[in-house]
Write a structure and sequence with these properties.
single chain, alpha/beta, eleven-stranded mixed sheet, 11 strands, disordered N terminus
Length: 496
């Protein structure tokens, strides 16, 4: 049976696999058998998973097969295995955030997105690796293990959602969830040849996501093509009363928006090239691939022009003040008293210090210290207050830009995947890996990264498309038209 499922699932998109299960061409249990066999075969070299959730996955798969046998219509993407980043709670299973400080912690409740995956009968197969507490751009900051890029095992998959990206790129699963605080889904999507989408802030509930930067975090989908990613977004989006930042957006059939683009051009679409992110500081091959992508959009009938957003030059600095300040506050709860690691000492203060000292890794400590300093008496206005003013100015400039164009574009990442260890001792260089993605989180708009080419070493390059608040459908339509024209989808690493 596993052999049959292998022939079925490796050659299909997630939507096609779902349809095959619905039509009885293969069973959800067979597909799951093959999925776990592939994980067992491949993940030792990739290091994408931190734990597997086999019991939960098979329980879901059996429920899918029972519904098919009864002649019932399945929910969207039912039966399609999915991986979940290990900072998203799955009841009854560990949530580690790839940190020693959550050693032994088992989540007592489901995140809202987990409940939605369960409701859609999508088997959750495991929890994926990340930079500790989602702090990093390479997944080298995991306290548990490194994750490797399936396109070149000596290179990083990006971060912080590198595990979720790597397992989809390798084909261990067809879909996964990550979290995006400053590009943590879009940048690894670019480095691993995937589609990664960061929705409008509040469109997807953050309830059950372990917080890094509460005003920046957003649970986000990975897929191997635009339609699959749109379908997963449709599953997880929606208002949630458990999340005070959740928004009530107009119901949109994201999958239908993509399907409407079949055979259509981009005539009537206005596309703006962000001039500050067009060439300078970019790897030459990234710039070349981006210019080719611009020409492809023009050939599809889009009206393309340059748009200036001057405050982007301050985005990285503003982000690392806001993000570290919020991290300092959010991570104060990890003290060894309520859950996770506890290093006993003679008094409570010493226990706090020793637990946090041994439990947090170097990057997390760095960001906590930076954030605590930015929020301290005498420095709040000079740093945090000024960063919030820069954020507001950036939002105003984006609004002005979107008054002229429908979407904005730029390269997703300034380089292709870099070598493991190459930037480990240079935090500033690592932080600049997110120079194109950070502005999106600061202003709360949606953005998507899609493959747009390769460098001379056959490493993938990503194109980022940015849109207005709650206009995911427009981003998906532009992305779908480009994907069809370029043929860059369902990419398979040369190692496979």
């Amino acid at each position: 049976m596993a052999e049959t499922a292998d022939r079925t699932s490796e050659k299909k998109s997630a939507l096609q696999l779902h349809e095959a299960i619905q039509n009885g061409e293969c069973s959800a249990v067979e597909v799951l058998d093959e999925t776990f066999a592939r994980i067992e075969r491949d993940d030792a070299k990739i290091g994408g998973f931190l734990s597997l959730t086999k019991d939960l996955a098979y329980e879901t798969a059996k429920a899918v097969d029972a519904k098919v046998k009864a002649g019932e219509t399945l929910p969207l993407l039912a039966g399609v295995p999915i991986a979940v980043k290990d900072n998203i709670n799955v009841s009854g299973y560990p949530t580690t955030c790839a940190s020693k400080i959550l050693e032994g912690y088992v989540s007592p409740y489901d995140a809202t997105v987990t409940e939605k995956l369960r409701a859609h009968l999508m088997p959750i197969v495991g929890k994926t690796n990340l930079d500790e507490f989602a702090m990093g751009s390479s997944t080298e900051n995991s306290a548990i293990q490194p994750t490797r890029n399936p396109w070149d095992l000596d290179r990083v998959p990006g971060g912080s959602s590198g595990g979720s990206a790597a397992v989809v790129s390798q084909g261990e699963t067809l879909l996964s969830l990550g979290s995006d605080t400053g590009g943590s889904v879009r940048q690894p999507a670019s480095l691993c040849g995937l589609v990664g989408m960061k929705p409008t802030y509040g469109l997807v509930s953050r309830y059950g996501l372990v917080a890094f930067g509460s005003s920046l975090d957003q649970i986000s989908p990975f897929g191997r093509n635009v339609a699959d990613t749109a379908g997963l977004l449709q599953v997880i989006a929606g208002f949630d009363r458990n999340d005070s930042t959740s928004i009530t957006a107009k119901d949109t059939d994201y999958l239908a928006a993509v399907q409407k683009m079949a055979g259509k051009t981009l005539a009537g679409f206005k596309v703006g090239v962000i001039s500050e992110l067009n060439g300078q500081g970019m790897q030459a091959e990234v710039s070349e691939a981006f210019q080719n992508a611009v020409q492809t959009l023009r050939s599809l009938g889009a009206e393309v022009s340059e748009v200036a957003i001057p405050s982007i030059s301050a985005a990285v600095a503003a982000y690392y003040i806001v993000a570290t300040a919020e991290a300092s506050s959010n991570l104060a709860r990890f003290d060894g008293v309520r859950y996770g690691l506890r290093v006993e000492r003679d008094d409570i203060y010493s226990t706090y210090c020793k637990t946090r000292g041994e439990g947090f890794g170097p990057e997390v400590k760095r960001r906590i210290m930076l954030g605590t300093f930015a929020l301290s008496s005498g420095y709040y206005d000079a740093y945090y207050g000024k960063a919030q003013k820069a954020r507001k100015l950036l939002a105003r400039e984006f609004a002005d830009a979107f008054a002229k164009v429908d979407v904005l574009i730029c390269p997703t990442a300034p380089t292709t995947a870099f070598k493991i260890g190459e930037k480990a001792n240079d935090p500033v260089s690592m932080y600049l890996s997110d120079i194109s993605t950070i502005p999106v989180n600061l202003v709360g708009i949606p953005a998507i990264s899609i493959p747009c080419g390769f460098d001379r070493q056959k490493l993938p390059i990503g194109l980022q498309i940015l849109g207005r608040h709650c206009e995911e459908f427009r981003l998906l339509q532009v992305a779908q038209a480009f994907e069809t024209a370029s043929g860059l989808f369902n990419l398979t690493p040369s190692l496979n």
